[in-house]
Fold each of these.
Amino acid sequence: MKKIVIISILLFSSYGALSAESAPCGDYGECEKFSPQLENLESLQLGAVTFLNNCYGCHSLQYSRWNRVAKDLEIPEEIFSSNLVYGQTVKLGNRMTGSMDKATAESWFGIAPPDLTLVTRLHGSDWVYTYLKTFYEDASKPYGVNNMVYPGAAMPNVLAFMQGQQILSCKDIPLLASNGGVKRDELGNDLTEEKCGYLKTISGSGSLTESEFDEVIYNLVNFMTYVGEPSRADRERIGWYVILFFIIFTSFSYLLFREYQKDYH
Ligand code: HEC
């Protein structure tokens, strides 16, 4: 009995640790769901381009190497080094240590931009995906922007030129009665109340439409998920072979078992 209690406590506590992993998205509430496609090379390549052009100036990926990324993403090394590698002295075998000096960065932003190699594993890809989509204009902040997932973040909204102006707006929400239905007045009109804190993009103010921007962020976070665990795609593929092997092996052992059984009877 005691053992069962201990085992169930262990099971439940590990379950708790698993569910705590997906950090809720601050003022945004639940994070948007992100499911990576690590076999989708086109998406990973586009994500790498977005990262190197817009993020690498501030954030390093110091636990990965240039040539590993080129190889995994199947980008020929000459194309990769002439178009995407930053820094004249960089060798393809080097780690992607970023181009910004830590002390300078700290004096600019108040905090040095963190290394992002493992950020999708630290916060979860859902968190990073939602974070990158929820910057909004806030005149009280030094860069004129704030973030719903990470309020007060010291990062400028570097992709605003694509997304356009995003602001917080209000909208009328139907009032719900205690039975779950919508409240109405005597004339039968729905009662509403004004609630604020919804994100709204001013259409036409950015270079991309909303769905194009979502796709750019999808590819970017897909790439960042890959960087956090470069061998995950292999691991998942090999896992299927292992399971297949077990199924085949089990069926052979069962046949053998039946042969042996014959001798007993
Ligand atoms: C101008 C410099 C700059 C650029 C460019 C920049 N960032 Fe940041 N970023 C920062 C700073 C500074 C922080 C730290 C914010 C804080 O902790 O308040 C940060 C924080 C973050 C975080 C949160 C990390 C954590 O663990 O809390 C993520 C994720 C992130 N950046 C992603 C990106 C991505 C993706 C891009 C490219 C689209 C990008 N950043 C471009 C400066 C920058």
Amino acid sequence: MDPEHDLRDIRTWKRWFKTPAGKRCLAIVAIVAVLLGYIAWYKGFRVVPQPARITDDPAMRFKYGSLGSEEDYGIPYYVWLVLPRVFPDLLPGPGGYASFGFPWEPGEETPVGFSKKTMGFPRITNNCALCHTSMVRTEEDAERMFIATGPNHTARLQAYIRFISKASKDPRFNADEILAEIEPVVELDVIDKLLYRYLIIPITRDRLTARDADFDWMNLPGWTEWGPGRDDPMNLTKYFMTEMPVDDTIGNADFPSVWNLGIRQDHSMNWAGETESSRAVIIDSALELGMPPTAANVSLAEDIDAWLQQVPPPPYPDDPDTRDAYDIDAALAARGRPIYEAECASCHEAGGTYYGKVVVIDEIGTDRERLDTWSQAAADAANAKVASFGITRKDMVFRDGYVAQPLDGVWLRAPYLHNGAVPNLRALLRPEANRPADFYRGFDVYDPVNVGFMSSCADANARLKDGCAELKRVGTLFDTRRRGNGKGGHAYGTDLGAAEVDALIEYLKTL
Ligand code: HEC
Ligand code: HEC
């Protein structure tokens, strides 16, 4: 290297840039830089609002609307779309993403709970409806109903997380294999192809594998599977929102219904009463889903709260034009009402002593594992975290029991109790020893006799074309002997006679 020589070179170049040709060249470079910048912005970051059919209708927005988490949590839509085609062997069964039990409305591009929004390129994120929308059929050949704000009892979220994780670590997750599936689906221009090949696909793979370790705790030996319709909500909060160290608690809990929150404004919220306001639960949930903590987004969460406050619970599917197993016997229900008032109203009806309050664990006696996942230290850490974002919301607390909630729309809230360990209302009204020790969860055909979802081979053999084989194919066996899955407690109404139980169940259908 000759430094003198280098210097001479630079001087020559500098002179050349002052010539007309040099100036032209500089102008071209500047134009190209601006163009490249524009293309980078356009292809990578330009935010396109979701279509009005989603943003203008609150139920559609709940099911498919974005919470603004595209930048940090988004998965490129086309990559996401083709993963089931690239990795069919990693799916639990045929049917693509529907095999995870995600409700998927006919004609929609994504299952409920998945938002597609373009930020440069279309990206998939998740929203509240992932866990808070129900899918139900009255019979095998009846049309599916999709009930936004209902508990999602079918979604196997843990299996989905594991699928994405396994796929991201698989050698087939490479630009060649993924583009080979994307190209028949959508026409990409040259720039898109380059972007997908050299940036989007490799970056997606790296981000997904990096996120993977965050879920190690749920793969520890002995951990009880979430199964359909559940996750481990307070541990998710502890490990993701507050980054507390992993402990050995397991708190698997059902996705609850979130309709009609207006009647619960002065109630304890969450299964174990950790929160005392729907606004606080909703803001925290949205933050956990990756919503950036801006004032505009807090007001989006408040809009969701306002909407949820006035969504009515869905009526029991008794069609007045047909006579079938879904007809409510009004006279029988009327006989059930005084039984409800005597046995249940003190906890489940407005004006009752415990209504909307926490019933201590020694009294309620249901499985305590979910309760034990939380603590005052966790509440303090979560409160500090949310405060650090400059967000004011009612503090989380720690309580020693489970909440006696209103029973509105209770027919669709099966399986019952916080851990979903009791398949139907009839089983709940039996002593612990006579409740099923195991049963199938996650099947969407309803059981109008026992009032819950179809959960037994006997019912499946009587009502399904393929009998129990179909129930086993779609459902997941739930074992109440596993940790956190206990079916005991809540012994109310378990000493009623058979006729009283029938009447009470008939009445509960009307709530
Ligand atoms: C990954 C699943 C999941 C997502 C996504 C989710 N939730 Fe939930 N949600 C739950 C679970 C599980 C609980 C029950 C937590 C507990 O107490 O154990 C819950 C509780 C709630 C409650 C309290 C209900 C009650 O009965 O006290 C409300 C309200 C709620 N969620 C609203 C929302 C909203 C609004 C969003 C979106 C911003 C959202 N959730 C996103 C799983 C989810
Ligand atoms: C002393 C208060 C109390 C009484 C009395 C009571 N319950 Fe409950 N109930 C609770 C509590 C607390 C829970 C939540 C328990 C849990 O999830 O672990 C609950 C949960 C339930 C659930 C499950 C709700 C869901 O979404 O999964 C149903 C159904 C229910 N009760 C019905 C009844 C009926 C019917 C009666 C009367 C025969 C009754 N309860 C009497 C306190 C009570």
Amino acid sequence: MKKKLLLATLLLSTSALFAQVSKPIEMPYVEYPIAAGDHDEVVQQYCLICHSFGYVLNQGKKSRPYWKGTIQKMVNEFKAPIPKEDQQTIINYLVKHYGYETSSEH
Ligand code: HEC
């Protein structure tokens, strides 16, 4: 008797599993808010085309040359459609909020 009950529960739970598969699969969207100001809207506009700000926030504080190189990589290698003047705005923003100026850079 107990076995039958177990089987019934098992069947019920597996059918629930199958029912879920027929639904469209939704990936959770994790939002990473970034600092406001200094034209953060430009950063929002261009950087979110391909990925979240997780990539930016996970780097920790980085130097100006690092951020400059990263933006160049996004543009040259990944074809991010960012106009030159906006690239400068983005680099300045990133250095201010997620980086530091390097004194050795003259
Ligand atoms: C055209 C698509 C695209 C756009 C637009 C884009 N990225 Fe990326 N980004 C990528 C890809 C692809 C990777 C690499 C992902 C991987 O290696 O897993 C990446 C990775 C990164 C990384 C991780 C470190 C690294 O060097 O790989 C950072 C930081 C980053 N992007 C910052 C930015 C910022 C800031 C912007 C806005 C100026 C931006 N991205 C816009 C495509 C893009």
Amino acid sequence: MRAPVLAAAGLALAALAAAPALAQEQPSIPTQSWSFDGPFGTFDRAAAQRGFQVYEEVCSRCHSMNLLHYRDLEGIGYDGAQIAAIAANHQVTDGPNDQGQMYQRPGRPSDAFVAPFPNEQAARVALNGALPPDLSLIIKARADSSLTKDIGGGADYVDALLQGFKEPPAGMTMAANMNYNEYFPGNQIAMPQPLHGDDVQYGDGTKATLPQEAHDVATFLAWASEPMMEERKRTGAKVLIFLLAMAGVLYAAKRQIWADVH
Ligand code: HEC
């Protein structure tokens, strides 16, 4: 009676052990060091501005960032005149006017980022049926739950994803219009490789290599997904300092009050 049970258990164990070998080899996502890591981390303004340039010139052809307004760019160090110029570069649909017509006008700082497509269907028609997700919160959406990495986990992933396009391994059949990416779950992604290096000309003279561009745009997206992070960390530090000082005061008071009791 016992032998069949043992044999069945053995088979089950063997099946379990074999399962991981069937799945595609997925390398683990490299951990990067980010300016915004840790309890005192801040956003590297220069990197975030370079990343915004990458978003503007490359990613914004397909991806919207609906939660951002041009005036928000103050948060990564642009001044009012620069923001007005950036906004004016975009055509915004406004109206209706007195004739009941919608019309186009140059963007203003108070406008939301102009999206590349008017709606989801238009995006899908242009991109073989695929839908590029809005990038406003993508870093948070892909962050792991590790408390020590915070939004750094999501930035690691986006950074790796942008550099993870490869030829598919021999024997792997790709679905139509799909691209092989070693970090994308399942390895088949509808996004064609967006960055190759030298996709932009950085104003500050930084060389636009692929890792540099990926790191910069991930920094910009991390800021976009949590623009109040620096304030949150500062408040946390102040609260801790206050609690420490208060603990000292209370301890001194306790010693004073109990000094005569033996
Ligand atoms: C030609 C259009 C196109 C461009 C340009 C483009 N993307 Fe995408 N992207 C897509 C599509 C389509 C998807 C959806 C892929 C899927 O679900 O298979 C996508 C998905 C993504 C995702 C989500 C991946 C996930 O885990 O779900 C991220 C992050 C991303 N793109 C970042 C970027 C960044 C950053 C840039 C600019 C450097 C960029 N994309 C440029 C079309 C584009």
